[in-house]
C-alpha cells in the first residue's frame, strides 16, 4: 500500500481499456485501493508521452494508458527517474467499457 503522505499528481481514467485482451476476465481481481505500476512507452507511434498502466501482481495485467493530453508531466517525471506509482480508486463497467479511475502518486519520503 502506498504511503498515506504520497502526493497525488494526477487523477484520471485509464484510457484504452476496451483494447486490452483478457481484461474482462481479469477485472474481478482488480480492487479499489490496490497499487498499480506505470511504465513509459517512449517508442509509441501514437503518443510521444505514452505511459502504460499495469497491475503489480505476479500475473501482471496491462490495463491501458494514462490519457493523452494529461500524461506529459508524468512521462517526463518517469523519464527523469522519479519513483511514481498509481492507485486504483474506482472501477465500474459501462456497457463494454471498463471505467478505471486512478491516482498517480509521488512518494514524499
UniProtKB/TrEMBL annotation:
Record bears the keyword Hydrolase: yes
The keyword Amino-acid biosynthesis is annotated on this UniProt entry: no
Source domain of life: Bacteria
A Gene Ontology molecular function term of the record: zinc ion binding
Keywords: Hydrolase, Metal-binding
Residue ranges constituting the HIRAN domain according to the UniProt record: 7-104
SMART domains: HIRAN
Pfam families: HIRAN (PF08797)
Name by which UniProt lists this protein: HIRAN domain-containing protein
